[in-house]
Amino acid sequence: MTGSPGSFIVVEGIDGCGKSTQAELLAIRLGALLTREPGGSPLGIEIRRLLLATEPDEVSDRTEALLMAADRAQHVADVIRPTLLEGRSVVGDRYIGSSVAYQGHGRGLDVDEVRDISEWATDGLAADLVLLIDVSVATAGRRRSDAPDRIEAAGEAMQHRVREGFLSEAAANTDQWVVIDGDRAVSEVAQSVNETVRARLGQ
Ligand code: TYD
């Protein structure tokens, strides 16, 4: 193998923040692989179905955290690490920050334990850059059109805790995370994303 590994850029945010649109635009601009969690590998598609389609009381909080971590382990092993080693960049729609925000801050599990499980699952693969597309819970609620999945159905108080969790992760890790105001037109948010990626990674 020749050349340097690709960059791993992750886009995070609450449900309805617009991160999937931004992740797609960024991946196209960079010629990067676009992938998502949960469900970024063949096994992960099965795990995603288990996680999101069941009734509210069927999945305990710890089971949810472990299934997210299992999905992530397979995703890194099957998709993310091999792609980076080929020299191609990867844009991930959600990664470890989502588990810290949703299962840690949202569900109330110990934040450091949740992070440790994911770091073990990924064998320490960290993102080079995490872009947090931040919108208010009210804005996100207005943008969501499809029926809520099991985690979205956990309600607005959970979304507030998740948003605060993302913001505190970003504030504690300013070398890795950048907060982008998502409450603007898609093209304006995309411009901020592009400026940030150029400034941080030269891409
Ligand atoms: P996502 O695919 O972003 O939602 P959508 O189908 O609306 O685009 O994520 C599905 C749900 O999974 C979302 O509510 C966030 C949740 N999630 C966690 O709770 N923890 C995690 O680690 C990840 C990756 C996602």
Describe this structure in words.
The chain is α/β, with parallel strands linked by helices and 203 residues long. It has one domain (8-201): Rossmann fold (3-Layer(aba) Sandwich), CATH 3.40.50.300. The chain contains 8 helices and 5 strands. The protein has helices spanning 19-30, 42-53, 61-85, 96-106, 111-121, 137-143, 156-172, 186-201; strands spanning 8-12, 33-36, 90-93, 129-134, 177-181. 43% of the residues are buried. The structure holds thymidine-5'-diphosphate. Thymidine-5'-diphosphate (TYD) binds at residues 15, 20, 36-38, 52, 68, 94, 98-99, 102-103, 149, 151-152. Thymidine-5'-diphosphate (TYD) binds next to helix 4.
Low-pLDDT parts are none
**Beginning-to-end CA distance, first to last residue:** 22 Å
In CATH terms, the superfamily is: P-loop containing nucleotide triphosphate hydrolases
**Strand line-up across the major sheet:** 2-3-1-4-5
Enumerate the distinct ligands.
thymidine-5'-diphosphate
What is the CATH third-level topology name?
Rossmann fold
Helix content estimate: 40-55%
Given this structure, which CATH class is correct? Alpha Beta
Q: Tally the helices: what do you get?
A: 8
SSE order: EHEHHEHHEHHEH
Largest sheet: 5 strands, parallel
Radius of gyration: 16 Å
Concise overview:
The protein has a 5-stranded parallel β-sheet, sandwiched between helices. It contains 8 helices and 5 strands, in the order E-H-E-H-H-E-H-H-E-H-H-E-H. It has helices spanning 19-30, 42-53, 61-85, 96-106, 111-121, 137-143, 156-172, 186-201, and strands at 8-12, 33-36, 90-93, 129-134, 177-181.
